[in-house]
From TrEMBL:
All residue ranges annotated as the GS catalytic domain in the record: 1-183
This protein's record includes keyword Ligase: yes
GO molecular function: glutamine synthetase activity
Pfam families listed in its UniProt record: Gln-synt_C
Species assigned in the record: Aegilops tauschii subsp. strangulata
Keyword match Transport: no
Protein origin, superkingdom: Eukaryota
Protein name according to UniProt: GS catalytic domain-containing protein
Similarity-based family: Belongs to the glutamine synthetase family.
Length: 183
């Protein structure tokens, strides 16, 4: 929560820097939180899943959303959400990716851009997040900070697994039905 000393849209300095790290690394984080080729069928504009790189206060279309429970003054933030966390994701790896991105934001003192108040699909200024798993994998492969913080072996393994899944589902389009029945 923000304080009288520092309050950036309801966040403390620490909160803003942490969220800025998550914002900065969000395309790479998707390789962990949206790990399946079909995860990207869900992450589309106008579906409350966050298809554009932005953040917002109580904005359900933003992939990163700050909010507070009822009764808390609107000048304070009690939590943030990442809206593109898929049910196929390993929650431990997803959370590790988010925490490592936040740590990078704290270390480097990253700052957030202004919040998005409107639907990002209606704003030409917002960059589209990767629209498929390959885009997220490419972002992760290029993200040297993730290699450093999460370990090169883990990141290399995740990249190899995601590429194998992309190939498998491209060759076997009906395989998604096995996934649906299994889970």
């Amino acid at each position: 929560m923000g304080s009288n000393k520092y309050n950036y849209h309801g966040m403390s300095n620490t909160g803003e820097r942490f969220l800025a790290g998550v914002y900065h690394h969000l395309p790479s984080i998707l390789a962990f939180t949206a790990p399946h080729p079909h995860s990207y069928d869900r992450i589309q504009p106008n579906t409350f899943t966050g298809a554009y790189l932005c953040w917002g206060k109580e904005n359900r279309e933003a992939p990163l959303r700050t909010s507070c429970p009822p009764g808390v003054p609107p000048d304070f933030v009690s939590n943030f959400e990442i809206r593109s966390f898929d049910g196929c994701a390993n929650p431990h790896l997803g959370l590790a990716a988010i925490v490592n991105a936040g740590i990078d934001g704290l270390r480097r003192g990253l700052k957030l851009p202004p919040p998005t108040e409107l639907n990002p699909a209606d704003c030409a200024s917002h960059e589209r997040l990767p629209h498929d798993l390959l885009g997220s994998v490419e972002a992760l492969a290029a993200d040297k900070i993730f290699h450093e913080l999460m370990g090169d072996k883990l990141v290399t393994s995740v990249i190899a697994m995601r590429k194998a899944e992309i190939e498998h589902y491209a060759k076997n389009p009906g395989a998604v039905h096995h996934l649906i029945h299994r889970y």
